[in-house]
Amino acid sequence: MKKRTVLNFLIWIVVGCYIAWIFSNSLTIGEYSSAVSTKAANFLLRYVNRAGFTIDFNLFHHYIRKLAHFSEYAMLGFMLVLAIRIAPLMKSKFLNFIIIMLGIPFTDELLQHFVPGRAAAFLDSFIDIAGILAGSFVAYVLVLIILDIFKKRSA
Fold first, then answer.
1. How far is CA 147 from the centre of its chain?
2. At CA 105, angle to CA 33 and CA 37, rounded to 5?
3. pLDDT per position as a tens digit, 7-24
4. At 124, phi and psi to the nearest 5?
5. Which residues, at least 6 apart from 79, have a Cβ–Cβ distance to it below 8 Å?
6. Helices (H) and strands (E) in the chain, counts
7. 8 A C-beta contact, residue 115 and residue 27
8. Is the pLDDT assigned to residue 2 strictly greater than 80?
9. Cβ(46)–Cβ(66) below 8 Å
10. CA distances from 53 to 45, 56, 107 (A)
11. 86 in Cβ contact with 7 (< 8 Å)
């Protein structure tokens, strides 16, 4: 196997493992998922309170859960741009991106429908898509900056 082919394969293995991690989070029963996010919200709320802000715990917990959706998918978006740029699965890089960007979040929410104590909240899919777009934007800008630096060095 060529060195480039191995690299392409490894890149998608990493992306696949990250997607599997996202799905494993969704397959966690509701009671445990809530306990983990409650613990994180309690930890962060101490610092918010120390900074002089007061916020209702339930509202804060809700936003922490939504931020978790956004951030895990922002990382996926970042990884997708790099993987598709290096080793697209299909000829159309745009189609690669669109299929994954829409397919993974909706599949993720559908999985939650079958997990005890969880519910499919399709609004979360749109938060996930926004995260993918944000992470993708950051990766795309970084790629442009890096390409520009290399272009200037070789000139």
1. 24
2. 20
3. 889 999 999 999 999 999
4. -60, -30
5. 14, 15, 18, 135, 139
6. 5, 0
7. yes
8. no
9. no
10. 9, 10, 37
11. yes
